[in-house]
Amino acid sequence: MSGLTDFNDLAVACGLGEVARQIMAVVNQTPAPVASNDDIAPADKAIADQQQKDLNAMLQRYAKIMAPGRATNKVYDLQQKVEYTKTQFNDHIGNKAIAKLWFEASTKTITQDEVIRDRQELISKDDAKGFFNRYLLIYGTKEVWDIQKHRRIEAKAVELSDKEAFDSWIKSPRKKMVDVDNIWFDPSRTRKAPNDEPFVNTYVGLPLKPLDMSGKDAMEKCKPILELLHHLCEYNNDLYLWVLRWLAIPLQKPGTKLDTALIFHGHIQGAGKSLFFDRIMRRVYGEYAVTLGQGQLESSYNDWVAGKLYTVFEEIFTGQDRYKHMGFVKQLVTGDQIYISKKFVSGWKEDNYVNTVFLSNDMMPLSLEVNDRRHVVSYPKAKIPADLLKRVEVAVNDPESDMVSAFYTYLLNVSLAGQNEHTPAIMTKAKQQLIKLSQPSWESFYDEWAAGELAVPYSSCLSQDLFKFYLTWCKQNNERSTTATKFLSFIGTREDKRLLWYKTLTMSTRKKSTIICVNIPTECPNQEAYLGDEISKWRIALDDFNELNNPNPQKFHSPHAKT
User: Fold this and answer.
1) From CA 214, how far away is CA 244, in angstroms rounded?
2) 20 to 30 A from 520, CA-CA: which of 172, 398, 405, 481?
3) In this structure, how many other beta carbons lie within 10 angstroms of the beta carbon of residue 366?
């Protein structure tokens, strides 16, 4: 029948019986014969009345969501402020037939923009269950910044916590956003975003507060801790003061990146290294300190360094690993920036504020170069005295003790005496020993040769003669030798290595060869003869050495040497 737009019109034109029959026909999926207004059984009429009431209620409560110029299959609940797809709506109603009748009869519509504004009214009442105050959308990523937890989180994880609130928040124009480049870790608290853009500083401050006392009183109160540090510095006062200032600089000037690192190592277990540099200093730095092992250093993810000011590595290197990871160690100690890689989260660059301590019971925890300027080394040779250990443990075990707070107060007041973040590492006996242990065989050989400690003179010689003696030296000292090409290339970085003419007294003609030139006089009228004499002396010394150490030596100076 034309002109009818809903079941209300149908009821007026044909009676409630026809409405009931059409509803029941859809419910039962059977054809509906035409009926008169009153041609219906009482039971069917009651069912039809209830169906009509339900449908009328649905027509008032739900609206179709409109796209520009057309209706969609989405439904909006005007009461509960919930958006449904067609499938979700069917499940929500629980009766596909009634849902179908609603889709055919509904005349209420709402645009998507109106849905957003309508839901916003609900959001403003309960603030999307705290989402607006808790989360910032990180623009350019699929992550959010959790203000409450103070960390980056995948948006999907937040959505799983409360999808309805998340949907309201993410679709709202009121949500706050921050650019991915405007999230940083700045202990100095001086950095600002350009053009007054929103930014996040992940640093919120150290956990300890200084005590209300003078530096002198604080020193007296934390005396056991200072005695422990003195013990770890081998009772070397210069080393003790240097390390004390090293600890104080980044606390007095937050955000200071030191160019140096500390190495405390030695075969003595129980010296107190971990007690001081881990347990006590971790109390000072709180969440901005981390203690790590080799596993973290070798991991492809390095988010352990994100937002950290102080890092302790314990027993991180063994065998050849001490060489393999030195590049990363150098970057960690002196690099201005570091790339943070975190599982399931986009990587990012962060300013490097980490100051590092290496602890080990190994004789050679790291490989140091001869001209190393990055590391201060100490080798404590005794266990911590029992009475001192007892007094220090109070600081870390007794919750009522404020000894660590006093130590923090003292560090804030200690005189830096001109030492700053760029002051080169001081040399110690322990560092000299570690450098010697770290040297490759060619470098140890060269140092002994240059110091006049070998059987051959530190003077000009043929490169091939020097290499032959190097091989003998390696065999005697059980050192691993390198190739001639590498050895002579290395020596060439320390001495003048050139292809020159030379002539000894016993040679009929001059000869050209690669010579290691050592201290050649500036004014040398006859360089060929001078070099020939130096080479002859060198070979005589080499032959003498071989005679003492080999019963049947091969003479190096025959047949050209001076007799």
Assistant:
1) 18
2) 481
3) 25
